[in-house]
Amino acid sequence: MGQAVPLPRTDVVRDPHLNQGTAFSAEARERLGLSGFLPPRIETLDEQAARALDMVRAQAGPIERYVYLSALQNENETLFYRVVVDNLAECLPLIYTPTVGQACLEWSRRYLAPRGLYLTPEHQGQVADILRRWPQRDIDIIVVTDGGRILGLGDLGANGMGIPIGKLALYTACAGVPPSRCLAVTLDVGTDTASLREDRFYLGRRVPRLAGEAYDSLVDEFVGAVRQVFPGAVLQFEDFNNANAFRLLVRYRDQLCCFNDDIQGTGAMGLAGLYAAGRMTGRTLAEERLLFLGAGEACLGIGSLVIKALQHAGVELAQARSQCLFVDSTGPVVASRRDLPPHKRVVAQDRAAQPDLVATIRDFRPTVLIGATGCGGLFTRAALEALAEVCPRPVVFALSNPTAKAECTAEQAYVWSAGRVIFASGSPFEPVTVAGVSHAPGQANNAYIFPGFGLGLIVSGARRASDEMFFAAASALAGQVSADDVAAGRIFPRQAQLRVVAQAVGAAVARVAYEQGVATQPRPDDLDAAVSQAMWQPRYAATV
């Protein structure tokens, strides 16, 4: 019998952090025992990326492109991120909103490979041990969801894992956080969506959603385990429902470096949009009157940060609150209502409730209309015409995702306001021409904030995330809106600029961390350069 031949180092080929596929050099193939196991031609990363992008474009539709890119990510992360980073505007809508919504709906049916951690109540008492088993020891950012309110789609339970995976992909693509230092977590506490529990392919726990002390006990153990196992990591809460999101943020924000992107990230994104819109309207933030359709995490996040920003600028609290009126599914959030939870009660106005949106617009006379309801079409023609009557240059944010959930389309906003509106939406829309004038809608996406925000926290080693950091992030984002953007009516930069935006936001956040004395890393002489140098680039390592 002949001498046994060592098996190839398939562990390298199967590790997405290390795999180089057809780009392995001749020397590496020989050293790793891969000779003969790969096609003979040795490609460059750029050549691989060109073929991968061609394959993305060859897929039948967005969800098929998402699946192809997900498979590529699970096989070769460097190649995946080279494709995404070089084609941000094309790829971001595929790996995150709006396509990720459909991916979550189909998560169990299209399950590809394990990625991230699923923690359940059955894991209580061993959560820290499970975190220690994660193969990467140096974790910078953890995104966690309980699947309770996925985009505008509601309670998707374990299917919500697509959200933290997608958010972390944006951390790497936009802010250069190394993919090996990212961790996605889903707390599978069940689901109240009966159709999921009855779906024979559903991979989550087929029980009603955990609540009360049992729920809090699991989250407490998880947060404690994060502090113990990954003490320097930033923890981002994502897509928890309203009943939990606000109270969990209050509970943990002073225990570790954490934030809720749906509340605070959306708040900074919205504030940045208002700052940029002021360059077109000529109005300052103190002159705006904001009407919010929705009183959940997104609208309250924006409204609360606007109120704090006004206070920061010297406006009295009562006056700042009077400039923000919220409407929920029951009607205007006013002091006479007895059904308001604490997080709504603090923003309730002492005014009469009007019967519908049009009447509320005519009574409150807003300059800004913001919707984040998850209900498509709520900004009707009558409402937008009424808005244009009370304000000659109104601002409209239709933030709900995915596209079908948007409160109105870009075309509706521009046409029904005779082209006078400044419009941004959560999902992308094409430019609209009204009376011979082309209008470029902005995409009001948290991707402009959270990647750079997290990067700034990581670079500075911040112990806490403060309101002033979100103010700084909003100002930095608004500062990235160019004169050409303003001329086109766009109040957010082009998505192709997201890495530049993340660098600016990251430096602004880190600067505040040093100023407030919450940074744990030595302050570099050139903070902007340090943030830039910290951003990982998708390139193959010289040695594997």
Give an overview in words.
- The protein is of the alpha/beta class.
- It has 3 domains: 10-93, Hemocyanin, N-terminal domain; 94-256, Rossmann fold; 264-447, NAD(P)-binding Rossmann-like Domain (Rossmann fold), CATH 3.40.50.720.
- The protein is 45% helix and 10% strand.
- The protein has 24 helices and 14 strands.
- The strands form 3 sheets. A 7-stranded mixed beta sheet has the order 8-7-6-9-10-11-14, sandwiched between helices.
- β12 (432-434) and β13 (437-439) form a beta hairpin.
- α21 packs antiparallel against α23 and α23 (498-515) crosses α24.
- The longest helix is centred in the middle third of the chain and has 21 residues, at 261-281.
- The radius of gyration is 24 Å and the shape is globular.
- It starts with 9 loop residues before the first helix and ends in a 10-residue tail after the last helix.
